[in-house]
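Worked example

This section walks through a single chain of length 150. The input is the sequence exactly as stored; nothing has been trimmed or padded.
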Amino acid sequence: WGWRIPFIVGLSIAPVGLWMRRTLDETPHFREEQQRQAASGKPAKAPLLSVLRDYPRELFTGLCMSVLWAIGPYALIIFMPIYVQKSMGFTSSQAFLGALVGNLFLIGGCFFSGTLSDRYGRRTVLRASALLLLIAVYPLMMWLQANHTQ
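Given that input, the structure is written out below as tokens.
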């Protein structure tokens, strides 16, 4: 039953959130949109449905990008250390040291991709890196499996 205590303590933030929601002002863009809808005489009754209907391509692109960039770090930080322990016989300290080195490269890659983004544009770098990540996963896993050492 002890695992429930942090959740009960976490509920104490709910009144703060409700208070903030009631007292904070809306953004100017939101107020402008409310005024526009009031002037048109027909407020949006189901904004989620209108997003699904009017912007399916953008919604799908956003979903794919979110999934792709959630899976990449998960694979490096969580999956790979466990994978090399279970299937390649590495010790946990070796596996997590490898993950640490991989994360250092990830940090360096963030700075490098930011520089490329400044030079070539966000969309170009994002598309190229997503495509590279999608294509390179299988060959890199095959290479890792074929050339592992202890």
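What to look for: The chain has two domains: 4-43, 54-146.
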